[in-house]
Amino acid sequence: MASSLAMPSRYAARRRRNFVAMGLSMTATAFGLGWLVLILGVLLWEGFSGLSLRVFTEMTPPPGSAGGLLNPIFGSLVLTILAVIIGTPIGILAGTYMAEYGRHDRLTSVVRFINDILLSAPSIVVGLFIYEVMVYPMGHFSGLAGSVALAVIVMPVVVRTTEDMLNLVPNQLREAAAALGMPRAYIIARVCYKAAQAGMITGVLLAIARISGETAPLLFTALNHQFWSTDLFGPMSSLPVVIFQFALSPYKDWQQLAWTGALIITFTVLALSIGARALSARK
Amino acid sequence: MEPARRQSVADVALEAGNVAVDASRAHALNGLRSWDNVYRWLTRLAAIGVLAILGGVIVSLFIGSLPALREFGFSFLTEQRWNPVTEKFGALAPVYGTVVTSFIAMLIAVPVGLMIAVFLTELCPMVLRRPIGIAIELLAGIPSIIYGIWGLFVFAPFLQETLQPALITIFGNVPVLSALFEGPPYGIGVLTASLVLAIMVLPFITSISRDVFEAVPPVLKEAAYGIGCTTWEVVRYVVLPYARVGVIGGVMLGLGRALGETMAVTFVIGNAHKISSSIIAPGTTISATIANEFTEAVGDLYTSSLIALGLILFVITFFVLAAARYMLMRIERRIG
Question: What residue of B is the nearest CA neighbor of A220?
Fold first, then answer.
C-alpha cells in the first residue's frame, strides 16, 4: 500500500523536476536569443537612421559638422587586403606542412597546439607585440604595422582551416598522382589544393570576417587619420578605430556616424560568414 | 654488309637519342626533386614561423616590460596605485577588474549557455535546430565593438534607471551584500561590463557545448530513455557526465575570450584605477587600461608598465587557453 502510494508521487516528482528543467532551458534560449535580437535591432535602427550616400562619399568630419566615413572605409579595405596578402600564404604553407609533409611528427602537434592558442589569444596583446617590433623601431605609427598586426590574427585561422581541409582529401587521390610519378610538391599543388579549394577559401573568408571588426590591435599600430591618406608608412584610418573614437565623443554627429559604421561592419561580417557557409555547404 | 652497317648507324643514332632522353629526363626529375625539397622546407619554415610568432610575442612583451619590472619588482603585482604623474604603477586594480568581470560574466553565461545547448540538442523541433544553430554561430562572429557601442548607448543608461537602483534598494539593508551594491548608479561600471561580456561569450559557450552534446553517442541516450528516464535525467546523468571534459574545455575557451576582451569592456567599465567592493562602481580591466591609455602614455616607465600589464594578460590567457585546448583535445581523441 505504502509503496504503491509512494510510486506515483515519486513519478510525479520526477516529472515535475523534468518540467521545471525543460522550462528553464526554454527560458534560457528565449533570454539569450532575446538579448542578441535586441542588440541587432538597435544596431539596425540606429545605423540605418544615419545611412546615406554621404557616408560613402565624404571624409570624417570635424566635431559638430556633418560628414561621412570614406577615409576609414578605404583604410579598412587597404588594411584588410594587405593583412590577407601577408597572412594567407604563410598560413597556407604552415597548414600544408602539418597536413602533408609532417602529418604525424612532433613539430606538427606542437604547432597545432600553439596555433589553437594564437587563434583565441587576446587581440590587444597582438597590438602590443607589433608596437614593440614595428612601430617603436620605426619611430611612428603606420598602416603597414596595422596590417601586419591583422595578419598575425589572419594566420592562425588560415592554418587551422588549411590543415583541416587537406586532412579531408582522400589518400587515394594522392596515391593515384604518386603512381603517375608526380613528386610530392606537385601532388600537393595540383591535386590536394584543388580538392580542398572550397574549404581553404572558406577559411580565408572567415579570417577576413574576423579581422574586419578588430579594433584593439589597430589602436596603437595604424592609429587613426582624420583625412584621406594612402601612405602605408603613415597613420591610417580604419572603421573600428573611428567607431571607438566617435562613440566615446560627446558630439551627436560623431556618435551617429559611429552607429552607421558599426552597421557597415556588422553587415560585412555577416555577409562574409554567410558566404563562407554557403561555399562550404556547396562542396 | 650494307644493311648491317645501316643497322648499326640506326642503332647508334637510337642510342644517342636514348642518352639524350635519359639526360633530359634526369634533368627534369632533378628539377622536380629540388622543387619538392624547396617546397617542403618552405612549408616547414612557415610552420616554425607560427611558433616563432608566439615566442616573439612573449619575448617582445617581456623586453618591453623590463623597465617597469625592474623599477617596481614584485610590488607591481601587489600594489593598487596607478599614478602617471609620480610614475608609480601597480597592476592590482586592472588584474582584479579583469578577474571579477570575467567571473561574473561566466557565472551568468555558463548556465544560460548550457541550457540553450540542452534546448537545441534535446527539445528543439528538428526544423528549428539548424536555423537557431546557425544564428548562434553568426552571432558569435559579430565584432566585440558592436557589443561595446550597444552597451554604452543603450544598456548602461537602461541599467542606470532600472536594475542598479533596484539592486541598491533591495540590498541596501542586507549586512554583507549592501557593500556589493554601494554607491550611486552610474550606469557604467564593473557590473555593466560583466553583463555585456556575458552576452558576448554566450554564443561561444552555446555553440561549443552544443557540438559536445551532439557528440554523445545516441545509443547511450536511447538506452536511458528506454529504461524510462525523463529528458532532464538523460541530460543530467548521461549527456553531462559524458560531455563533461568538453564542456569544461568550451567554458575555459569562453573564459579566455572574456579575460582578453577589450572593446566590449572598454566602453562600459568606466576606467577607474581603484578596487571597490561595490560591483556597480566603475573599475578597469587590463585590456581596457591598455586600450585607453597606451597612445597617451608619456614616458618610458608608463609605457613599460602598460606593456607589463599586457604580459600579465597574455600569461593568464595562455594558461587558460592551453588548459581549454588540452581538454578539448582529450574529448576529440575519444570521439576519434
Answer: B295
Interval B277-316: pLDDT, tens: 888 888 899 999 999 888 888 888 999 999 999 999 999 9
Nearest to B161 by CA among B142, B185, B190: B185
The confidence score (pLDDT) of residue B287 equals 93
- DSSP secondary structure of chain A: -HHHHHHHHHHHHHHHHHHHHHHHHHHHHHHHHHHHHHHHHHHHHHHHTT--HHHHHSPPPPTTS----HHHHHHHHHHHHHHHHHHHHHHHHHHHIIIII-TTSHHHHHHHHHHHHHHTS-HHHHHHHHIIIIIHHHTS--HHHHHHHHHHHHHHHHHHHHHHHHHHS-HHHHHHHHHTT--HHHIIIIIIHHHHHHHHHHHHHHHHHHHHT--HHHHTTT---SS----TTS----HHHHHHHHHTSS-HHHHHHHHHHHHHHHHHHHHHHHHHHHHHHH-
For residue range A194-244, what is the model confidence (pLDDT) as tens digits? 999 988 999 999 999 989 888 889 988 888 877 777 788 888 889 999 999
DSSP string, B314-334: HHHHHHHHHHHHHHHHHHHHH
Reported as a single tens digit per residue, the pLDDT across B26-79 is: 888 888 888 888 999 999 999 999 999 999 999 999 999 999 988 888 888 888
Q: Cα distance from B261 to chain A (closest Cα, Å)?
A: 7
Contacts of A208 in chain B (CB under 8 A): none
Cβ proximity of A127 and A218 under 8 Å = yes
Higher pLDDT, B12 or B309: B309
* Cell output for B105: 560574466
Cβ burial, residue A189 (10 Å; 0-12/13-18/19+):
middle
Long-range CB contacts for residues B282-285, cutoff 8 Å, separation at least 24: B282/B186, B282/B188, B282/B189, B282/B190, B283/B93, B283/B96, B283/B97, B283/B100, B283/B101, B283/B189, B283/B190, B283/B193, B284/B93, B284/B94, B284/B97, B285/B94, B285/B97, B285/B98, B285/B101, B285/B193
B120-150 pLDDT, tens per residue?
A: 998 888 888 888 888 888 888 888 899 999 9
Q: How far apart are alpha carbons A78 and A279 in whole angstroms?
A: 24
Cβ contact (<8 Å) for B146 and A124?
A: no
Confidence of residue A2 (pLDDT cuts 50, 70, 90): very low
Kindly state the cell numbers that stand for B252.
575555459
B-chain residues within 8 Å CB-CB of A250? none
Chain B residues within 8 A of A188 when measuring between CB atoms: 39
Q: Give A66 or A82, the one with higher predicted confidence.
A: A82
pLDDT of the residue at B1: 45
Q: The complex's ipTM?
A: 0.88
First to last CA, chain A: 64
For residue B67, what is its C-alpha cell? Answer: 623597465
Which positions in chain A touch B139 (Cβ < 8 Å)?
Answer: 36
Q: Which of B36, B150, B233 sits opposite A185 (nearest CB)?
A: B36
Mean model confidence pLDDT for chain B: 87
